[in-house]
């Protein structure tokens, strides 16, 4: 009897020790994310200023893709091991948290106002990409078969990403039209020296490396903590992994918003979601077809609704995302999370 009690104490102490270690690892990951986000925003902003590139273009490419690297790596690893529910939940959950938590927090820190024509095209493109992904997930009601994102669907999404890149490169080369955003080009001087150029690129690259390392540590430790408390795999993908991999976007967008780089804050979110939908999801689907889990259509619908709500915000009135709308986005995310947790059998 005494030996059994000793073993129970030992097991309990071991579990507590594992929880403490996972919590410390999670904290380290968050620190790396904060430092990496600061370095990436600073490096990308200064590179844009030095070469005369609009902050929106940088936000839609370098920053957005750099902060989405954790999702790409984690999903590729998950797909190769057959963990497709985790991959799906990570992409869709990350998109939802980007649109609700990240944009909401950035708008609360500093209202986001966009004047350029670029965002007036990128947001509808994101809506189109989200709609295509949602339609691809309708196999069950439309064709009475298991709903999944197969390899042919993945190729289609990757081709759309190629079109997106082509449009942005073409815009950059032919950016001579009278656009308030493109008018910024004349205000940026060239870099003073090659050494300064190298230093800024090192800042951006170092930020991406730290973001990747921090995101990996955050997700791994978060999954370990969630699993130890019996949380279902679906919820882990939607919230623990998704929020963990969205922390880079949250950090970079908040920093950009507080520095007055509203173009970079919004461009980071839109570009990241486009990258998640048109690259991360299809790359995972190419490695292993992704089956749509229970409640997956609800998640895709929520993502679509959040994108659709941005169109009247930026197309009507003052084209401004203020603190009130930002607070409403965060409240909507909390409500969505509560509903999904109540629906989950886990």
Verbal overview:
By secondary structure, the chain is mainly α. The chain has twelve helices and four strands, in the order ααααβααβααααβαβα. It has one domain (2-343): A middle domain of Talin 1, CATH 1.20.1420.30. The chain is globular. The strands form two sheets. A two-stranded antiparallel ribbon has the order 1-4.
Give me some keywords for this one.
12 helices, A middle domain of Talin 1, 346 residues, mainly alpha, two-stranded antiparallel sheet, 4 strands
> What is the helix/strand order?
HHHHEHHEHHHHEHEH
Percent in strands: under 5%
Number of helices: 12
Tell me the distance between the termini.
34 Å
Q: Looking at the chains present, what oligomeric state does this protein adopt?
A: single chain
Largest sheet: 2 strands, antiparallel
Strand runs, count: 4
Structural class: mainly alpha
Query: How is the CATH topology named?
Result: A middle domain of Talin 1
**Considering DSSP H and I runs of 4 or more, what fraction of the residues is helical?**
over 70%
Q: What overall form do the CA principal axes indicate?
A: globular
Q: What's the CATH H-level superfamily name?
A: NCX, central ion-binding region
Low-confidence stretches: 178-194
Radius of gyration: 21 Å
Short account of what is shown:
This protein has about 350 residues and is an all-alpha fold. Helix content is about 80%, strand content about 0%. The two termini are about 35 Å apart.
How does the SSE layout of this entry go?
Layout: H1 2-51, H2 55-67, H3 69-80, H4 84-109, E1 112-113, H5 117-136, H6 139-143, E2 148-149, H7 151-173, H8 194-228, H9 233-258, H10 262-287, E3 290-291, H11 296-315, E4 320-321, H12 323-343
Helix pairs in contact: 1-2, 1-8, 1-9, 2-10, 3-4, 3-10, 4-9, 4-10, 4-11, 4-12, 5-7, 5-10, 5-11, 7-10, 8-9, 9-10
């Amino acid at each position: 009897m005494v030996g059994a009690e000793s073993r129970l104490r030992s097991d309990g102490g071991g579990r507590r020790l594992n929880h403490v270690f996972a919590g410390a690892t999670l904290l380290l990951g968050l620190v790396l994310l904060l430092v990496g986000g600061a370095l990436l925003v600073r490096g990308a902003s200064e590179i844009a200023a030095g070469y005369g590139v609009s902050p929106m273009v940088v936000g839609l490419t370098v920053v957005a893709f750099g902060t989405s690297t954790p999702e790409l790596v984690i999903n590729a690893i998950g797909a190769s091991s057959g963990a497709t529910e985790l991959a799906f939940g990570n992409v869709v959950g990350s998109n939802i948290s980007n649109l609700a938590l990240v944009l909401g927090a950035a708008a609360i820190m500093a209202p986001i106002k966009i004047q350029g024509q670029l965002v007036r095209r990128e947001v509808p493109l994101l809506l189109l990409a989200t709609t295509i992904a949602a339609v691809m997930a309708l196999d069950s009601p439309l064709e009475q078969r298991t709903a999944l994102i197969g390899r042919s669907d993945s190729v289609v999404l990757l081709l759309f990403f190629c079109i997106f890149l082509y449009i942005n490169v073409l815009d950059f080369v032919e950016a001579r039209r009278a656009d308030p955003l493109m008018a910024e080009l004349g205000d940026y001087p060239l870099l003073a020296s090659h050494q300064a150029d190298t230093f800024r690129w090192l800042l951006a690259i170092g930020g991406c490396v730290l973001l990747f390392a921090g995101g990996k540590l955050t997700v791994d430790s978060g999954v370990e903590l969630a699993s130890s408390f019996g949380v279902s795999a679906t919820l882990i993908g939607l919230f623990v992994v998704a929020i963990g991999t969205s922390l880079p976007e949250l950090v970079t967008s908040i920093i950009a918003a507080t520095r007055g780089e509203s173009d970079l804050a919004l461009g980071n979110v839109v570009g990241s979601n486009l990258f998640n939908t048109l690259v991360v999801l299809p790359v995972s689907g190419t490695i292993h077809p992704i089956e749509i889990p229970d409640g997956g259509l609800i998640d895709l619908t929520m993502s679509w609704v959040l994108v659709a709500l941005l169109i009247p915000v930026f197309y009507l009135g003052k084209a401004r995302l203020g603190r009130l709308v930002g607070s409403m986005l965060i409240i909507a995310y909390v409500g969505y999370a509560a509903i999904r947790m109540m629906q989950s059998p886990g």
